[in-house]
Design a protein that fits this description.
The chain is mainly α. It is built from 16 helices and no strands. It starts with a helix and ends with a helix.
């Protein structure tokens, strides 16, 4: 929480990045997802999922935390390039983590309680995250940027090291391997699953539209609306509380309705978050941003939880790593392009009136998302 979200955008602005660089950095985490297909094949050869997981978790935490050293050891012209290298390396390691952790956790949590379990788990996780976001905003607003970010990174290092230790206590469960021993036949299994691929391609297209604007919310607030860090962090807390409150509800609904049906229900809510920015033309800024972040928390919270349940619950157990990897690779491409193109569009829009960047672009994208949800989304995700 202290290294991501609005603080990541703020740190990049502090290092001297513009909207196009911020869009690129925010998209790195999804671009590297393409490698999960290769990783899913390689994990079939592992003797122990747990210890490989621990090694890559340690690597990811250390690399990401190391970005905090940049202003203290490098000349300013190297700040952004070195950040990109370290950040990209950290999330290359995170790809191995995603495949192993998802596979291991799907074996740890029984099918019958999976929806409720993740609802409760995510509620607790986001409650603690909300506290850290509030603390981070206070720290940045009461100190200079250099001192504030130094404190955030020190805290992140402490909790990151503790986090590595906790994974030593994970069980090392037996691994049910794929029935295929070669890579191409293994890849073909998800590609031949028509229902899985149709849903995956639609969700990838949806994420392209969503990531055109949502990852850049913090950029618009900090750099275009000139809102301070504490207010931005409070809005992120509001979003997290809305997300946290919705997890348990989505989990309970998941016991009655399919993952795909509930995924469809989340789409108009996410579109509404983007559309809400249009109200900046006639309502107070803080009120509009609170409405948008509440809708985003409810929608994205349900979307992320249900996508996770979809990939681990609606796929064959022995082939699950490759199904997860294929989903991550396809959605990773579109989620990479979204922030990249969105960041460039904000540069292009500088020649237009201020309101186009402040809320016009978000509103147009939100309207397109709503139309897509009610047409293609209804047809693809609600069919059983």
């Amino acid at each position: 929480m202290l290294l991501g979200g609005p603080f990541l955008t703020g740190y990049l602005l502090y290092l001297g990045a513009d909207s196009s660089v911020i869009g690129f950095v925010l998209s790195i985490t999804t671009l590297v997802n393409i490698l999960q297909v290769f990783i899913a094949f390689m994990v079939q050869k592992l003797q122990s999922r747990k210890w490989t997981l621990v090694i890559f978790i340690a690597l990811q935490r250390i690399l990401w935390g190391s970005t905090g050293l940049i202003p203290f050891i490098l000349d300013k012209e190297w700040w952004v390039p070195v950040f990109i290298i370290l950040y990209a390396s950290a999330f290359l390691a995170n790809n191995v983590i995603n495949v192993l952790w998802t596979s291991l956790l799907s074996d740890m949590v029984p099918d019958g309680v999976r929806g409720r379990y993740f609802g409760i788990r995510n509620t607790i996780l986001n409650a603690l995250g909300s506290v850290m976001i509030f603390m981070g905003g206070r720290i940045l607003d009461t100190h200079s940027e250099s001192t504030g970010f130094l404190i955030l990174f020190i805290l992140a290092w402490i909790f990151g090291l503790l986090n590595i230790v906790t994974f030593f206590f994970y069980p090392d469960l037996p691994f049910e391997r794929s029935t295929e021993s070669k890579m191409m036949p293994m890849i073909k299994k998800p590609l031949r699953d028509a229902s899985f691929m149709k849903s995956t391609i639609f969700l990838a297209s949806w994420l392209f539209l969503q990531t055109l604007v949502v990852p850049l919310y913090s950029y618009v607030m900090l750099d275009l609306l000139h809102i301070n860090y504490q207010t931005v962090s409070l809005l992120t807390v509001v979003q997290t509380i809305a997300m946290m409150s919705s997890f348990y509800i989505w989990g309970n609904l998941n016991a009655r309705y399919s993952n795909k049906t509930l995924l469809f229900w989340t789409l108009p809510i996410i579109a509404g978050s983007c559309l809400a920015w249009g109200m900046l033309s006639f309502l107070p800024v803080l009120l509009v941003l609170m409405i948008s972040h509440v809708l985003l928390g409810i929608g994205v919270g349900g979307f992320n939880q249900l996508v996770f349940n979809f990939t681990i619950g609606d796929t064959p157990k022995s082939e699950r790593p490759m199904f997860i990897a294929m989903f991550a690779a396809i959605t990773g491409v579109t989620s990479f392009l979204g922030p990249m193109i969105g960041g460039q569009l904000f540069i292009v829009m500088r020649v237009f009136p201020d309101w186009v960047q402040q809320y016009g672009f978000q509103s147009v994208v939100g309207f397109v998302m709503l139309i897509v949800a009610l047409t293609f989304g209804r047809r693809i995700l609600r069919e059983e």
